Amino acid sequence: MPTFSAPDGTRLAYRTYGEGDPVLCVPGGPADSRYLGELGGLSAHRRLIVPDLRGTGRSSVPEDTATYRCDRLVDDIEALRRHLGLPRTDLLGHSAGANIAVRYAARHPSHVGRLALITPSARAVGIDITGEERRDLARLRSGEPWFPAAFAALEAITRGTGTDWAAVDPFFYGRWDEAARNHHAASRPENPEAITHFGAEGAFDPPATRAALAAFEAPVLLLAGQFDLNSPPRSAAAFAELFPHATLVVQEGAGHYPWVDDAARFAGSVAAFLG
Q: To the nearest 5 percent, what fractions of the chain are helix, strand and coil?
């Protein structure tokens, strides 16, 4: 894997897939970016540049754990853009990576061509999701054989009396089959310090970020999964309203990883947006 140097000297790695105009793809987690794969075949349309965030995958662990903070990770994305010699790039962020992407867009709007936010976490802009909203969305899956145990675990977690997160894993996919189970195993974050410090004090400034996004003139895509408990369609719709030029797409039958649930539909939607 090629590498580049972050502003603090930490050595960071990135993957590339496909050919054509580049799209810089920011993973969530923070987790090894291999879980993104080639985003359901999006690499057939564009060249995907996919970094491993610091302390994940093949990127080095930093000396200062404070650099795991979301706002500090923006500096790593800017360092990668400079390393690649791109005056401007399309930017894609998945899940927690969407927080990094929007903070990057707020800080460096002239460096972003188009912005795609895939099942985005909305912590950076202060959009909250209630436990009741998650339960209502979960009830749409009541016909699934795994539903009774998964829903009981979800209710306990939302009440603050349960910790069986593994039991709710099926809710993150449109189909809980072998492919989904294998993908989920590969997408689990492995660096607890990166997770703990990602949202530490100072990582987010929702009022300032909202104000910056209100002046962001580039086209924006927000793609939500119909069944996604982590980033429900309602929160994605509220997120879209923060931009002057945003399009919301809800992929039917999809969860938090829509390229796993229906690769062709996902890649088609994102490729059409990116052009």
A: 45, 15, 35
